[in-house]
Design goal:
This protein is mainly β. The chain is built from 2 helices and 50 strands. The longest helix has 14 residues.
Length: 552
């Protein structure tokens, strides 16, 4: 599998493969329901139309093909590139955009089956492109070290962004905030307001290490659990503390959310589980969990049950409606350290200090399989629901990738430190938090470590992302929460009042109508408030290039 994408409005996802075939999967059943042939070279990229009716694929055979999801067959072929098609994306209306190793970007009309525009402003392989449905823009990145912003469907070049001397490796657009993030092969990340700017937020707790974090989609809240016995709710991305939940008598060690509700579940060393109304902060239920501390929590996708793991190795299954115990399962010989659900909620996955991973059938409790590949304590589990791919992290410094529901080993990464936390950013991109305070970004498509996000104080004990996939959040044993605009970047040094004054003097000396002065209000709010900018070499310096402002 070379690429993977979810299909809106259903339980299906599509995969592109090195054999040139496009497959459609039912992720609930974990089975292939269609296999479509047409390409004579490996599939390099996939895109799905906004209505979920069509798939587009780009291939090494130099073609772009469009497939009907309902009919499960090829309906269009576009030829014109002279090298491999590296990326495709559906634009607004009937446009489809493709980029190639031949350095060109082409805009196709899928209704007329014609080439609308042939864009030849880049001078290197097109490494990525993304179309915004709102604003009708297309952003392209290239090995020629630039990113370019175009209008759709006209193909008018609005501006060129420079700043990655070794070329752009990957980028993403946050449609909610209008921010473009570019990542270069030289190891730097630049965030632009569709042209410029980088932002970072840092939230420091009064005391206590962070044990777990989780997103609450309703209201855009982030929950953080701490060893100081509290849970804090933060507004994302603003970083505003909304409320502090108090009720546990010992460190809060685990968090989960009941899907489809605003109910937050917390587990503690005090041997209790509490269900909270995240909107009001009120306790809905308080459960005496087991004879040992609660070490892990997870909820089923349907939200009807949730599971807890204990210090004694036991697993407890609870009914969400009334908090009653449905079942207790035993199999691990040591404390349960991580829990997850997979295969559409039909499998409960548990990891333990006994170095094993166990797959349990829900709701029967039958032990389906034991995975014993790790040589160290299992510290974290993550499942990507769209692909039913399981990732496991361990104190043996490895991350292993498994295919559910059978638990077949697929891939393994060896990292420089013990793994503490995991989260899928995309179907083929995984973030791993390590005990040395760094977070590594792993590419499942080619098996490499793509970048190092940051170094925090203490181990990266928890990772989560907002529901839109635009913000990555890390919590550390040092008590710090940090947020990044995805795709990924590193924490940035805070500016001081003196830095702000120096930059303000530079801006004041610019012509009144210059783009820099027009943007200064926005940039100043980032610099002086809860947001932070990177200062790489001490004193901040403003450099202007066309419409771009850069603080280096």
């Amino acid at each position: 599998m070379t690429c993977c994408i979810a299909i809106p409005g259903g339980t299906f996802f599509a995969s592109g493969n090195a054999d040139g075939r496009v497959r459609i999967w039912d992720h609930g059943a974990g089975t292939v329901i269609a296999e479509m042939k047409g390409h004579t070279g490996g599939v390099r990229s996939l895109s799905v139309s906004a209505d979920g009716r069509f798939l587009a694929s780009g291939s090494s055979d130099q073609t772009v093909r469009v497939w009907s999801v309902a009919e499960r067959k090829q309906v269009k072929t576009f030829r014109g590139h002279t090298d491999a098609v590296t990326c495709v994306d559906f634009g607004p209306d009937s446009s489809l955009v493709s980029g190639s190793a031949d350095s060109t970007v082409k805009i196709w009309d899928t209704r007329q089956n014609t080439l609308r525009r042939d864009l030849r402003a880049h001078h290197g392989t097109i490494t990525g492109l993304v179309c915004t449905q709102q604003g009708a823009l297309c952003v392209t990145g290239s090995a020629d070290t630039t990113a370019k912003i175009w209008t759709l469907p006209e193909g008018t070049l609005l501006r060129t962004l420079k700043g990655h001397p070794a070329g752009i490796r990957v980028f993403a657009v946050s449609s909610r905030s209008g921010i473009l993030a570019t990542a270069g092969w030289e190891g730097t990340i630049r965030l632009w307001i569709l042209s410029d700017g980088g932002l970072i937020r840092a939230l420091t707790l009064p005391d206590g290490s962070i044990q777990a974090v989780g997103m609450i989609p309703d209201g855009g809240l982030l929950a953080s659990a701490s060893s100081d016995r509290t849970i804090r709710l933060w507004k994302v991305p603003e970083g505003q503390l909304v409320r502090v939940l108090e009720g546990h008598r010992d460190a809060v060690t685990a968090l989960s959310l009941l899907p489809g509700s605003g109910t937050l579940i917390s587990g503690s060393r005090d041997r209790t589980i509490i269900l909270w109304n995240s909107a009001t902060g009120k306790i809905l239920q308080q459960i005496t969990a087991q004879d040992h501390s609660v070490t892990a929590l997870t909820a089923s996708p349907a939200g009807d049950v949730f599971a807890s793991g204990g210090w004694g190795g036991e697993l407890c299954l609870w009914r969400s409606a009334d908090g009653t115990l449905a079942a207790t399962w035993r199999g691990h010989e040591s404390p349960v350290t991580a829990l997850a659900c997979g295969a559409g909620g039909r499998i409960l996955i548990s990891g333990s200090q006994d170095r094993s991973i166990r797959l349990w059938n829900l709701p029967t409790g039958e032990l389906h399989q034991v995975l014993e590949s790790h040589t160290g304590v299992i510290t974290s589990l993550a499942v990507h629901p769209g692909c039913d791919t399981l990732a496991s992290g361990s104190a043996d410094r490895t991350v292993k990738i498994w295919q559910l529901p059978d638990g077949e080993p697929v891939q393994s990464f060896t990292l420089p430190e013990k793994v503490r936390s995991l989260i899928f950013i995309e179907p083929l991109v995984l973030a791993a938090g390590l005990y040395d305070g760094s977070t590594r970004i792993l590419s499942l498509s080619d098996g490499r470590i793509m970048s190092t996000v940051s170094v925090l104080t203490g181990a990266v004990t928890a990772l989560t992302a907002d529901p839109q996939g635009t913000i990555l959040i890390a919590g550390s044993s040092g008590g710090t929460l940090r947020l990044w605009e995805l795709p990924w970047t590193k924490p940035l040094a805070a500016t001081t009042p003196d830095d702000l004054s120096r930059v303000e003097k530079i801006i004041a000396g610019l012509p009144a109508g210059s783009p820099a002065r027009k943007k200064w209000g926005y940039i100043r709010s980032l610099l002086q408030g809860r947001f932070r900018y990177e200062i790489e070499a001490g004193d901040p310096v403003i450099t202007l290039e066309d419409y771009d402002i850069e603080i280096v």
